[in-house]
Amino acid sequence: MAGTSRVFAAQLSGLAVFGPDGESIGKVRDIVSGLRVGNNPPRVLGLVMEMGTRRRVFVPMLRVARIEATAATLSTGSVNMRAFAQRPNELLVLGQLLDAKVTVNATSRSAVLVDVAMEQTRTRDWQISKVAVRERTGRLGRRGPVTVLSWDQVSGLATLDVANQPQEVHQLLALFEDMRAVDVASTLHELPSKRRYEVAEALDDDRLADVVEELPEDDQKDLLTHLHEERAADVLEAMNPDDAADVLGELSEVDKDRFLELMEPKESAPVKRLLEYSHDTAGGLMTPEPVVVEPDTTIAEALAMVRVADLPVALSSMVLVVRPPTGTPTGRYLGCVHIQRLLREPPYSLVAAAVDTHLASLRPDATLTDVTRYFAAYNLVCGPVLDEEERLLGAVTVDDVLDHLLPEDWREGGLPDTDESGSAPVPRGGDRA
């Protein structure tokens, strides 16, 4: 990023914001910082920008190409137009941090924080590294000098204390209501354990299941073992079987067996089958609940099945045709029908007339490398998994493949941001540590 590498926050208030082509976009109204534990310098997540319409939106720091004395310039003209709403694990630098009372560690004197300095690190992240404080002299009418100190040279700003301030759970639930599960998971990951538990206990089983699926493994195990075991079993039942199997596979044998016993047999059966396979094979990656139809199903019926709102996008890309029974393991697998083909066929015709019988399939013992090559070779986002008797066992989707290709801690590294198109609205998750 060109421009200044250290910026004092107070200088940014009201600063003009321009797009990459020099067009005026708005003005800076505040700076959003992420809460950190102890005296660790907070990470700067982004800017609160006020548009010409007085709408305030969030601009991630990664979108800020340059900060100068007269203006800030963005690297893109695309801005997420969702109205800014502060999250529980965020702090507004100008609105909440400035004028805070602190203690200077070296002198044990009280002081007032009058400004903070933001610096860019080698990884292009911004963090609050310095604080400008004015000590109290004790003399009426006299103001002490302003001193610039490192963040860890003052106390009273420990962000964990801010995060633990009393807050009604219903306020968090209202905040999470319109957020995607992955964004709720990102926020929960940043909250103190106590607050995370309170939110988990307040969410209903289906919503909590969606969120748990998106959490890092350590958080998943922590939440499930915190919940009452019967509640945890209900949440596992509400999860996708492959995700439930992944979570249970990380638990001790005692905990895993206990949860499986508490689950309804109908819900635990597919999970137990998945646990028989190694997690890095097609059998361990697959979901046992793809879209399955018999050959005499009409095109209209098949389209209705892939139109279900809760169906993952990757699974809706393909209808798998089998002989009865249609529950996995099914009868003999006949082939698949891609959604593009469904859309081109008359709704009254049968899927049997549109089946692709030539697409290769996967075996449950196929390695992660084999599965990756399969998706790359056939340009697919979903692929059937068959046993030696040509029965359908399930389907692997590209999101599960990516999940295993990425580093284990990828969920803790942040989420990408989107523009105002709303094609993948991930509000500010990409700029959290």
TrEMBL record:
Domain CBS: 286-353, 355-412
InterPro entries in alphabetical order: CBS_dom, CBS_dom_sf, Mg_transptr_MgtE_intracell_dom, MgtE_N_sf, MgtE_transporter, PRC_barrel-like_sf, SH3_actinomycetes
One Gene Ontology CC term in the entry: membrane
Annotated region (Disordered), positions in chain: 409-433
Keyword Protein biosynthesis: no
Keywords: CBS domain
GO molecular function, one term: magnesium ion transmembrane transporter activity
PANTHER family: MAGNESIUM TRANSPORTER MGTE
Protein name: CBS domain-containing protein
Native source organism of the sequence: Allosaccharopolyspora coralli
